[in-house]
Amino acid sequence: MNTQVNEPEVMIDDPEAGMATAEYAIGTVAATSFGGLLVWILDQPWVREALENIFRNIFSIF
C-alpha cells in the first residue's frame, strides 16, 4: 500500500510575494501601537466630553 502523497509543486512568479516574518512583526507592532494611541486619546477628558456632547445632541433630537 502506497501512503505517500505527492503534492503538486507551487510555482510563484514573484519571489517576494507575501510578507516575511519580520514584516508580520512590524505590522503587528504598528497595529498595536495605533490601538494603544486610540485608547490613550479616547481616555482623555476633553475627548470624552466631546463625545458625550455629540451623543447628547444626537439623542436630544429624538
Summarize the structure.
The protein is mainly α and 62 residues long.
Helicity, in percent? 55-70%
First-last Cα distance: 74 Å
Order of helices and strands: HH
Count of DSSP-assigned helices = 2
General shape:
elongated
Query: Helix/strand-derived class?
Result: mainly alpha
Q: Please provide the count of β strands.
A: 0
pLDDT under 50 segments (min length 5)? Answer: none
* Mean pLDDT over all positions: 83
Using only C-alpha atoms, the radius of gyration works out to 25 Å
Query: What proportion strand?
Result: under 5%
Largest sheet: none
How would you sum up this structure, described in words?
- There is one protein chain.
- The radius of gyration is 25 Å and the shape is elongated.
- The chain is mostly helical.
- 63% of the residues lie in helices and 0% in strands.
- It is built from two helices and no strands.
- The model has no long low-confidence stretch (mean pLDDT 83).
